[in-house]
């Protein structure tokens, strides 16, 4: 039997041998591809570029200026291609879409994707196609129409809440917008009755809203740089403890989802036109002959996808568009003028009005361009050997498309760092995945299935807030003083609070849930 000291020396020897193997393998592969890129550290490669204090998408954009729109990084044992031009994005997402349709295996995907049973992290196979179809039905035009009343009521409740803040001198609009989405999205997923505490839930299942809010904010602070993703043979060591933290949060979230499912199973779906929510809809399908093979984990995986992705991306976009409007008062005034001309001040804006709010759409499109909620598209992985821009790409190579760099490229956009919604006035470029210089929802078969719902949520929320409320900066603060400094997180966020005061813009009887 080994002594403790002998065991430690054996582990050290194994580690050194494996490290030498990793280094030799990466050197050989690097020579095979010939793809340009910066020189990395031995063994760890370019992992220091992912330091939590660095804004990674900007670092990658700067590297593209030196090494070109296609360059290679080595993150431990992983080979990663960084794409920074519309033409190369089209090559990956359209021309060779089938060859780069897979997703890499990650700890986050394994846990929050319920062993990759979801849409986001699942490999491209029949199960992924089934889950995508299931999720798309919830986000169809018919389904979104059914959710309209609930959306309106939630937005008007948020307006009431903001008006109550008049007693305070200022509010942090970042927090208010996040809280708004932390109410609206869960209602869509779990149903208004359960979130509002009006279901037959037992005491152990109550306060779901409070639990979800707390968990989401903890998840947002989580460092998702897991050593085991880059060095799979070291995963068992959990260097830094990142995986343990992810496991802990996942268990908490899984318990919340289980409680919600138990509560919803004890009550029938609402007999009225009220939208029952995604989870109740899926549970109803599960009880049919057609859906009897749908597992609880698959339902949880789909709900998790929409919860995490929906809240983060929508609140981020709204935060940046409001910050830009406070920084550019002439744009805000032009948008308010359009709202007054199209909708007026005698009623509250409705979703049917959105088609006529052309400038609103331009403002949102420009926000998508300048401040993508997710600066990198979710990573893809080559399903076999491929060739990109004349370079040989080995199987299992990961591909990261830097939206931030593409959407700020002077080759595609005039004055790319300025906020100018008018650039889309006579411009047919859209966000639906056909124009590869503007890809907030991605493109190809792995395009975000929530594109329609996400776009609608941003449009109606922004239109409602701006029409009903008047937002002002603190006295003495100039528009150019609005701090647009980004935080070093996976999704885009502002470092500084967005402090504003609010007051009614319409008559009091319209600024109420009673309308």
Automatic annotation (TrEMBL):
Cofactor(s) named in the record: heme
Determine if Heme is one of this entry's keywords: yes
Q: Pfam families recorded for this chain?
A: p450
The protein's GO terms of the molecular function aspect are:
heme binding; iron ion binding; monooxygenase activity; oxidoreductase activity, acting on paired donors, with incorporation or reduction of molecular oxygen
Q: Does the keyword Iron apply?
A: yes
Annotated GO biological process: secondary metabolite biosynthetic process
Record-linked PROSITE patterns: CYTOCHROME_P450
Coiled-coil spans are none
Q: What domain of life is recorded for the organism? A: Eukaryota
Q: Which UniProt keywords apply?
A: Heme, Iron, Metal-binding, Monooxygenase, Oxidoreductase
Per its UniProt record, what SUPFAM superfamilies does this chain match? Cytochrome P450
InterPro entries in the cross-refs:
Cyt_P450 (IPR001128), Cyt_P450_CS (IPR017972), Cyt_P450_E_grp-I (IPR002401), Cyt_P450_sf (IPR036396)
Binding locations of heme = 448
Q: Which PANTHER family match?
A: CYTOCHROME P450 98A9, OS09G0441700 PROTEIN
The UniProt entry's sequence similarity note says: Belongs to the cytochrome P450 family.
- Tell me what this protein is called: Cytochrome P450
Provenance organism:
Marchantia polymorpha subsp. ruderalis
């Amino acid at each position: 039997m080994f002594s403790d000291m002998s065991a430690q020396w054996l582990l050290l020897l194994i580690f050194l041998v494996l490290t030498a193997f990793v280094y030799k393998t990466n050197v050989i592969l690097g020579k095979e591809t010939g793809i340009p890129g910066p020189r990395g550290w031995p063994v760890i490669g370019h992992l220091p570029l992912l330091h939590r204090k660095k804004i990674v998408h900007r670092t990658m954009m700067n590297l593209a200026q030196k090494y070109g729109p296609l360059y290679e990084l080595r993150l431990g044992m992983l080979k990663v291609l960084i794409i920074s031009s519309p033409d190369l994005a089209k090559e990956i997402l359209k021309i060779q879409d089938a060859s780069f349709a897979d997703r890499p295996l990650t700890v986050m995907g394994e846990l929050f994707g319920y062993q990759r049973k979801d849409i986001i992290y699942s490999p491209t196979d029949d199960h992924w196609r089934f889950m995508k179809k299931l999720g798309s039905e919830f986000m169809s035009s018919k389904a979104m129409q059914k959710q309209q009343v609930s959306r309106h009521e939630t937005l008007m409740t948020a307006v009431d809440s903001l008006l109550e803040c008049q007693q305070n001198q200022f509010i942090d609009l970042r927090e208010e917008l996040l809280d708004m989405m932390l109410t609206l999205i869960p209602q869509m997923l779990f149903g208004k009755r359960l979130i509002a505490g009006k279901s037959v839930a037992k005491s152990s299942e109550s306060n779901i809203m409070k639990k979800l809010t707390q968990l989401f904010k903890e998840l947002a602070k989580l460092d998702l740089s897991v050593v085991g993703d880059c060095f799979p043979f070291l995963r068992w060591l959990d260097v830094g403890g990142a995986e343990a933290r992810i496991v802990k949060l996942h268990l908490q979230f899984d318990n919340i989802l289980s409680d919600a499912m138990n509560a919803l199973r004890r009550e029938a779906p609402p007999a009225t036109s009220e939208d029952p929510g995604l989870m109740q809809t899926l549970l109803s399908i599960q009880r049919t002959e057609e859906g009897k093979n749908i597992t609880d984990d698959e339902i949880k995986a789909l709900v998790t996808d929409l919860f995490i992705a929906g809240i983060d991306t929508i609140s981020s976009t709204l935060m940046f568009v409001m910050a830009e409007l406070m920084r550019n008062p002439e744009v805000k005034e032009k948008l308010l003028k359009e709202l007054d001309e199209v909708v007026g001040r005698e009623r509250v804006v409705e979703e049917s009005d959105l088609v006529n709010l052309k400038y609103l759409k331009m403002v949102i499109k420009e926000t998508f361009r300048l401040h993508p909620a997710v600066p990198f598209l979710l990573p893809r992985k080559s399903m076999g050997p491929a060739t990109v821009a004349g370079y040989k790409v080995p199987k299992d190579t990961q591909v990261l498309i830097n939206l931030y760099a593409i959407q700020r490229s002077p080759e595609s956009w005039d004055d790319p760092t300025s906020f100018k919604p008018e650039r889309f006035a006579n411009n047919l470029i859209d966000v639906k995945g056909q124009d590869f210089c503007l890809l907030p929802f991605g493109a190809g078969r792995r395009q975000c299935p929530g594109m329609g719902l996400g776009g609608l949520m941003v449009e109606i929320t922004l239109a409602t807030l701006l029409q009903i409320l008047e937002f002002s900066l603190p006295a003495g603060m100039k528009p150019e003083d609005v701090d647009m400094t980004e935080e070093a997180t996976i999704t885009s966020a502002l470092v500084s609070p967005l402090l504003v005061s609010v007051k009614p813009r319409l008559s009091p009887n319209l600024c109420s849930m009673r309308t």
